[in-house]
Predict the structure.
Amino acid sequence: MLSFKMLRTLTIKTNKKQEIIDITEKVKSIVSESRIKEGFCIIFTPHSTAGIIINENYDKNLCYDILDKLEEFIPVYENYRHNKIDNNAHAHIKASLIGPTKTAIIKNGQLLLGTWQGIALAEFDGPRVRNIFIKIIKEKIE
Amino acid sequence: MLSFKMLRTLTIKTNKKQEIIDITEKVKSIVSESRIKEGFCIIFTPHSTAGIIINENYDKNLCYDILDKLEEFIPVYENYRHNKIDNNAHAHIKASLIGPTKTAIIKNGQLLLGTWQGIALAEFDGPRVRNIFIKIIKEKIE
Amino acid sequence: MLSFKMLRTLTIKTNKKQEIIDITEKVKSIVSESRIKEGFCIIFTPHSTAGIIINENYDKNLCYDILDKLEEFIPVYENYRHNKIDNNAHAHIKASLIGPTKTAIIKNGQLLLGTWQGIALAEFDGPRVRNIFIKIIKEKIE
């Protein structure tokens, strides 16, 4: 197994200003292609106005609930200091709370997620093209 | 050291609707049993209405403060869209903010936590039986 | 590569009660000194009133925006239960939301951060002397 196989980049085109986009199947495919049986996986988005959420991905309405609640307390339009430079302070604050990185366990060649868990990109300042790095680490078995 | 020794499941029965339950000693025992000296530990709960917190675990009142503050802004009863399916949108939102996974360092065979740091399961939609996966990774020493 | 080279402690003296302090260059130096080409890095602060943020570090005003927004909802002075013991419940709650640990990928000997991403210590109960553990893990290449 060569190293370059273990780091992949997902590229996602977001469509709205704020959006939660499920990437579970894409991450599962990368884990599957790696053929790694036991280990773990670092999901990292290199953006400061987006984040990675692991939560339910079945009911799309829940995604709107999460975005609405964040917007209620951290609205797009407010007198932020950073907005003198760029009109997206709200997105940076939301991304700081959600965080750009999550780690998931791999067992028997599969992501060890719960039945109702999915992995999603949280876009807070779209639409944009976003990258997500998927780093897969094989556990050493002695 | 075989792989199956490195992934353990903690099963916790929660007692309340919302509750922060200390699991530090249980995680420490698993680290100790693994006999791994240097490495790290992924703590992951496969639920979308619970999370993992690393913070003070000495004063139980602090746990109530954290839950009260989350409840103040993300109350159980509100007009969430997801509630047409399931009455727990608040719990999903709280869990998205806290996150289902944290990573801790192992040094000299012990979890490298601060004096006032503990690991806890945050239950937002109990009472339920919850699982927490503890994946211990041994550092390769060359 | 010996194990002791792979765990370093950054010690940061904070100057204010609440402050976001960029540590990106310090973490990059540790990664560079490790000479590890492919792997990842766990950034962990062993305090329960501080956290680790990965977000923009170019515009200092954004740091004030993040702190102001957290303070708006989790003010220093409020009737917290924990404050009977210690006057810093607000700091524990903020730290629980931000989290004490983040994981970053190392590629070609460098931290794989986005152009606008930096790593910062979030101090919520300073001024204090704070530690940040930097654990660097080398990927095994087969």
